[in-house]
Amino acid sequence: MILRAKEGYYRHPTSPEKILRNFYLRDAKTVAIDLLGKILVHRNKGREFRAKIVETEAYLGPHDLAAHSRMGKTKRNEIMFGEGGFAYIFLIYGIYDMFNIVVSEHNDAQAVLIRAGEPLEDPDRRLSGPGKFAQGMHITRRQNGVDLCGDQLFLIDGAPPKKIKKAKRIGVDYAGHWKDRHLRFYDAASEFVSVS
Prior knowledge:
The protein is mainly beta. The protein is 10% helix and 28% strand. Strands 1, 2, 3, 4, 5, 6, 7 and 8 form an 8-stranded antiparallel beta sheet that branches.
């Protein structure tokens, strides 16, 4: 069963499209599904970048052997142990910044990785795959810890996909039985979903 946010429940009263904190204070699986179709806005150096989210992966906390929080709190992942609604960005392979959204309550350490998006103002911008998504949206580790309820990096409402598919997460073969869990979600009709 796919849980959806109640219509209007997570909207800001004076900026009705903007997503509020309580949207993020839920489990990673629910938020990962509800993020599909939402619009990520990044205001950077006088420019505004927008993308519709079309693919996500849920990381369910310290018991999830694929989650960064599985080894406890470290300097790298400490933002995951805070309240939901903040950016968690880390470097992978020494090359790519990866944009995640911290979700759930304080000390629950869950997050959602944004794997792909559809560019809304520049169709040539490549946002398929988590490294390309962050790069194309001009998101770097400098935004680690940014409050997604602020005015620099935030989400606004968008139309949810008509059909959502789920699959195994990518690149988590080290995670024991967790590698087989279907915690990747994507818009079945989108041409911008990453290649798995």
